[in-house]
Write a structure and sequence with these properties.
Shape: elongated
InterPro entries: Spore_lipoprot_YhcN/YlaJ, Spore_lipoprot_YhcN/YlaJ-like
Strand order of the largest sheet: 1-2-3
Oligomer: single chain
Largest sheet: 3 strands, mixed
Number of strands: 3
Number of helices: 7
CATH architecture of the largest domain: 2-Layer Sandwich
Radius of gyration: 29 Å
Helix content: 55-70%
Distance between the termini: 61 Å
CATH class of the largest domain: Alpha Beta
CATH superfamily of the largest domain: Cation efflux protein, cytoplasmic domain
Protein name: YhcN/YlaJ family sporulation lipoprotein
Number of domains: 2
Keywords: Lipoprotein
Strand content: 5-15%
Structural class: mainly alpha
Pfam families: Spore_YhcN_YlaJ (PF09580)
């Protein structure tokens, strides 16, 4: 009888410990699902190097046929190149010219990720920013202007267009709740936080 009780106690002890280990593993996995991002803030912009790079990128852009003039602004690893082309060129041809400029800039390490703009208004704004940099104006205001220009070129996609993919883990955890009132409160809170997306 004692052997049976001792064996049963040993089995229960091992089963209990293995259940405890599974919880530790799932907690460790939850901690490993972190998303890491790079800090993309520009700490200090070297105006002299940026102006030299802008001059080089401008030269590369001007070397493309149909490009009358070009302007570039470089702050850190970011560059925007504005190209001036004839107004009577068709839209499809503008895309081809921008592609050609992109191909020319692709081989330059500072121009590989440059944004190319052919819009006359944006080109003029880029020209003004380049002049402000040359005149030594504060970088903070220039960064705001560049952010404004970039947001016109690369607009944000509205959240309504993108359908968020809900995490299955949340639903699994929600199903573990025993109390219906807790589950209802959690549903209400999630619904409020998602701006009533599920309704």
């Amino acid at each position: 009888m004692q052997k049976i009780l001792l064996s049963l106690a040993a089995v229960l002890l091992m089963t209990g410990c293995s259940m405890d280990n599974k919880n530790e593993v799932s907690e460790n996995n939850a901690k490993n699902n972190l998303t890491k991002v790079n800090n993309s803030t520009i700490k200090e912009a070297d105006r002299h190097t940026g102006q030299q790079t802008a001059k080089r990128l401008t030269g590369l852009a001007k070397s493309i046929p149909e490009v009358n003039d070009a302007t570039a602004v470089v702050l850190g690893k970011y560059a925007i190149v504005g190209i001036d082309i004839d107004q009577d060129i068709e839209r499809s041809q503008v895309g081809t010219i921008k592609y050609s400029v992109g191909e020319a800039l692709k081989h330059d390490p500072d121009g590989a990720n440059a944004i190319i703009v052919a819009d006359p208004d944006l080109n003029e704004r880029i020209r003004e920013v380049a002049k402000d940099i040359k005149d030594g104006k504060p970088v903070t205001g220039l960064l705001n202007e560049l952010a404004d220009i970039t947001s016109r070129v690369i607009p944000e996609v509205p959240g309504d267009i993108l359908t968020p993919t809900p995490s299955k883990n949340i639903d699994k955890e929600k199903n573990k709740l025993d109390d219906k009132t807790e589950r209802t409160e959690l549903d209400k809170e999630q619904n409020d936080q998602s701006n009533h997306f599920k309704e």
